[in-house]
From TrEMBL:
InterPro entries the record matches: CheY-like_superfamily (IPR011006), Sig_transdc_resp-reg_receiver (IPR001789), TCS_response_regulator (IPR052893)
SUPFAM superfamilies membership: CheY-like
UniProt lineage: Bacteria, Pseudomonadati, Pseudomonadota, Alphaproteobacteria, Rhodospirillales
Superkingdom, natural source: Bacteria
Residue positions where 4-aspartylphosphate is found in the record: D65
Pfam families named in the record: Response_reg (PF00072)
Domain called Response regulatory: residue spans: 7-132
Protein name as catalogued: Response regulator
Gene Ontology BP terms: phosphorelay signal transduction system
Length: 142
């Protein structure tokens, strides 16, 4: 059995949502390692292994909020999908936005899925566990 953890990059500026995501992943049946960054600019430096991130792990999954400081989630998504070494990493947009234009734009930029953040803690943890379960037990990735 492979004991290499699944690498997840969470791009989220809300510390409460970061904590809830960590709790959900810690209670899951799949071995994961989560890195988190608080803004879009830092996410891009992490993904391109720049500066202090020169030895950062390549994520197996990116969970991306849209409403980020410095560089928006849409800009991060566009950058990910235009770079050959990043474009195959699945990107799950997990955001509070229900705006149709955000949904359409995310899919136009090749998001792998768009999930609305639940407002209560229990549902949030269920959603994160569902994302993890789907992407690492149901889907076959390259």
């Amino acid at each position: 059995m492979d004991t290499t953890p699944i690498e997840i990059l969470l791009v989220e500026d809300n510390p409460g949502d970061v904590r809830l995501t960590q709790e959900a992943l810690a209670s899951a049946k799949i071995l994961t390692k989560m890195n988190s960054v608080l803004d879009g600019e830092t996410a891009l430096r992490f993904l391109h292994r720049e500066g202090e991130f020169n030895d950062s792990p390549r994520p197996d999954l990116i969970i991306l909020d849209l409403n980020l400081p410095r560089v928006s989630g849409h800009e991060v998504l566009a950058s990910i999908k235009e770079h050959e070494h990043l474009r195959r990493i699945p990107v799950v947009v997990l955001t509070s936005s229900e705006a149709e234009e955000d949904i359409v734009r995310s899919y136009d930029l090749h998001a792998n899925c768009y999930v609305r953040k639940p407002v209560d803690m229990s549902s949030f943890i269920d959603v994160v566990n569902g994302i993890e379960d789907f992407w690492f037990t149901v889907v076959r990735l390259p």
